[in-house]
Amino acid sequence: MEYWNSKAETMPRRELVDWQWRRLQRAMAFARRNSPFWSERIPDGITTPEEYAARVPLLHKSDLLAAEAVAPPYGSWPSLPPELGVRHHQTSGTSGNPPIRTFDTERDWSWCVDTFCTALHANGVRPHHRGLVAFGYGLFAGFWGMHYALERMGCTVVPAGGLDSRTRIRLLVDYQIEVLGLTPSYAMRLIETAGDMGIDLAREANVKVILAGAEPRSDFTTRTIEEAFGARVFNAAGTTEFGGVFMFECPSRRNACHINEPSCYDEVLHPETRQPVGYGEEGVRVTTGLSREGIQLFRHWTEDVVVKRPYSDCGCGRTWDFYDGGILRRVDDMRKIRGVSITPVMIEDVLRGFEEVREFHSAIRTVRGLDTIHVKVETDAVGAAAETLVARIGEEFKREIGIRPQVELTEAGSLPRSLWKAARLHDERELTAHG
């Protein structure tokens, strides 16, 4: 087994835990000295991890937005002067909320790139591979780190920002791209476009590794992408607040996403009691950054629902614990309809099972006082085939989720496609309650 940083990735567990705590103590001291925001939230004299969890409050997005408002754009949050920043990034704002703004110093950005190198190397990327990163190169940190990591690793990067899907597919084929970075929803868009172009990606392209992150995906979507490209799809995740990749999928065990523990100290807490849960139990990921200096992060309540398992359950040799299945869902993604808990991935799982469905959008609406799911489905089916499809979708929803939706069919190509994060479940109950 090869590692990007064998010393860090295979350090004896006891040494790793001790090292984490020493780094956390240094990070707290640095933040108390240099950040007005953190000096108020981190008390002096914390000597144990238990004391850290008890005395440092959980950090929510509202806290960061309040800190930004003190002196925009970064407010009282930074631990270093913003003038030292070489890059500016901000959250995508797909939820409709104001973005969180951050900057990276030269040192911090180098660390961020290294977290991507760790993930890509684990996924099989090597020098001289050709890579294409299919995103718009905008304010969101997204795959910027992947682009520079490929360069650092000695790969050739084909720039594809601002190009349409057809042009990107031609690049994949013409340059025999081996490494592809994109969101799962955009991967599905490329598959659809390639089909319209008469291109068999598995046969005509040469993609071997796909890093598909930034949004949850169903197992069916993963299988569809892998079969269409003839490549292995790997999961990875990072956040703008944290500043780098905090987990990546291991090739030795499907869906085992190792936590980058030298760079983050993660707790998994019960969503209601806020108490720690054990290995194998669902909880919310609470993260603390150990490496970034300009923008620091302590006990961030991420809303990510995860299940942590011990490193020994994976046979790759890394001593980093892992999240089984990565991010399972987000607490704020969960919606209740007539007592039934529903997430976007549950809806995707059902609809991706119909080969007639090309794209879809879903919403929760109130119709005659009753909450229901409204699904708009893009399809080529017409006539009797369309009527049968509506009935089949309704039956499958009822069987798998417990609620029969309203199904509306629309012609192929009529629904918008997302290059970045796809918002697949809209809660429109307030808008439709009196309609």
Number of domains: 2
Treating each run of at least 4 consecutive H or I residues as one helix, how many helices? 14
Largest sheet: 8 strands, antiparallel
- Rg is 22 Å
Can you describe what's shown?
- With 435 residues, the chain is of the alpha/beta class.
- It contains 14 helices and 21 strands.
- It has two domains: 1-332, Rossmann fold (3-Layer(aba) Sandwich); 335-432, ANL, C-terminal domain (GMP Synthetase, Chain A, domain 3).
- Strands 8, 9, 10, 11, 12, 13, 14 and 15 form an eight-stranded antiparallel sheet that branches.
- Helix 6 (106-122) packs across helix 7.
Summarize the model shown.
With 435 residues, the chain is an alpha/beta fold. It is 33% helix and 24% strand.
What is the secondary structure topology, with strand pairs?
Blueprint: H1 6-9, H2 13-34, H3 36-41, H4 49-55, H5 61-70, E1 85-90, E2 101-105, H6 106-122, E3 130-133, H7 144-152, E4 156-158, H8 165-174, E5 179-182, H9 184-197, H10 201-204, E6 209-212, H11 219-229, E7 232-234, E8 236-238, E9 245-249, E10 256-259, E11 264-269, E12 282-289, E13 300-309, E14 322-324, E15 329-330, E16 335-337, E17 340-342, H12 344-351, E18 357-367, E19 370-379, H13 383-400, E20 406-411, E21 425-427, H14 429-432
Parallel strand pairs: 3-4, 3-5, 5-6, 6-7, 18-21, 19-20
Antiparallel strand pairs: 1-2, 8-9, 9-10, 10-14, 11-12, 12-13, 13-14, 13-15, 16-17, 18-19
